[in-house]
Write a structure and sequence with these properties.
This protein has helices at residues 2-13, 21-68, 126-137, 180-204, 237-250, 271-277, 296-317, and strands spanning 80-83, 91-95, 141-144, 166-167, 170-171, 209-216, 219-220, 223-224, 229-232, 256-258, 282-289. It is α/β, with parallel strands linked by helices. The strands form 3 sheets. The protein has a 7-stranded mixed sheet with strand order 1-3-2-6-11-9-10, sandwiched between helices. It is globular, with a radius of gyration of 30 Å.
Length: 318
């Protein structure tokens, strides 16, 4: 840039002194041309510098959100695992409460020993069941690796219960008195990667149906839940009834229920309202009582019940 300006300056400096109107006009034009070239090149140089600074800033922001924000350390697992990621299956699965990991920085949330292994810490058996169905259908499955007590990824991130201070009567000391920055830190490290994975899974290939796999405890807050499985939905009761009818034909002794032991609503649920309903996908949130999922035999039985039920649903929708 400066060599060009120097050449233009020399060209003007070596010109004869202006004596006529035309020569004066020519001289003024040369000055203006030199100034215009200088401004253009300076603007381009500044623009390039700003571009690179923005790129560095975005890279650092992405790294921070990926875990360098101080919550997830080198010894902590990645928040999301995706199985059969390249599958073009029309069905996709999600298991938001698959894991029970707690970031080391949170010191076990102050929970008593063994508490994280109970139903409050994760959905017992849900990951194994979801993996078994995913393998049979060869369909994509997203597994969330952190305990629902760190952040419940089936709750809107601003929902009060997304980071519970108590669960089934047990206090969670590590979740008490959190500030906005604490919520933001957990959301960025744990919730956002799962949400990004859902978007990627649904964008990668046209999906016709999505199912979220969960489990629940038989006894909750002193009450017994009599159902063996529940099928949760609001707008797509046809899919829920299809699954229930198929399972009842194969295992008539099971007690199945629609919208038990929970109900879907916008305030406290995420995947069904935010994705399944919003995209008009066939869907159900499947809840299996965890006393059915305590061993390999139970996992296999429910995988063998749910897989053909999902297959026949897809055949009818084709």
């Amino acid at each position: 840039m400066f060599y060009l300006l120097f050449d233009l300056h020399n060209l003007h400096a070596n010109a004869p002194a202006a004596t006529t109107v035309d020569e004066i006009f020519f001289s003024v034009n040369m000055y203006l041309l030199t100034l215009e070239v200088f401004v253009r090149l300076l603007w381009r140089t500044v623009g390039i510098a700003v571009y690179h600074l923005n790129a560095i800033d975005k890279s650092e922001t992405k790294d921070s959100q990926a875990g360098s924000n101080g919550l997830l350390g080198a010894g902590d697992p990645q928040p999301v695992e995706v199985r059969h990621e390249q599958s073009t299956s029309p069905v996709a699965l999600l298991c938001e409460h698959a894991g029970q990991a707690v970031p080391r920085a949170l010191g076990g949330l102050g929970l008593p020993e063994g508490a994280i292994d109970k139903h409050i810490g994760w959905d017992i058996g849900a990951e194994a069941l979801a993996c078994a169905i995913s393998d049979r259908l060869e369909c994509p499955l997203i597994l969330q690796r952190y305990s629902r007590l760190v952040m419940d990824c089936n709750r809107p991130p601003l929902f009060e219960g997304s980071i519970p201070e108590r669960s089934d009567g047990l206090p969670v000391p590590g979740n008490t008195g959190l500030q906005k920055q604490d919520h933001d830190q957990r959301r960025q490290a744990i919730f956002d990667p799962m949400n990004d994975a859902i978007n990627a899974m649904l964008a990668a290939h046209p999906r016709k149906a999505v199912f979220s796999i969960h489990s629940y405890t038989r006894q909750f807050q002193g009450q017994e839940r009599p159902w063996d499985a529940g099928f949760l939905t609001r707008r797509d009761t046809a899919t829920a009834h299809h699954l229930m009818d198929a399972i009842t034909r194969a295992a008539p002794n099971l007690k199945l229920a629609l919208n038990e032991p929970y109900q879907i609503d916008d305030a406290s649920d995420w995947f069904i309202p935010r994705y399944a309903e919003a995209r008009s996908l066939r869907h159900t949130l499947v809840e299996i009582c965890n006393d059915h999922l305590r061993d390999h035999g139970g996992i296999t039985r429910w995988a063998n019940l749910l897989t053909p039920a999902i297959r026949t649903l897809l055949e009818k929708a084709a």
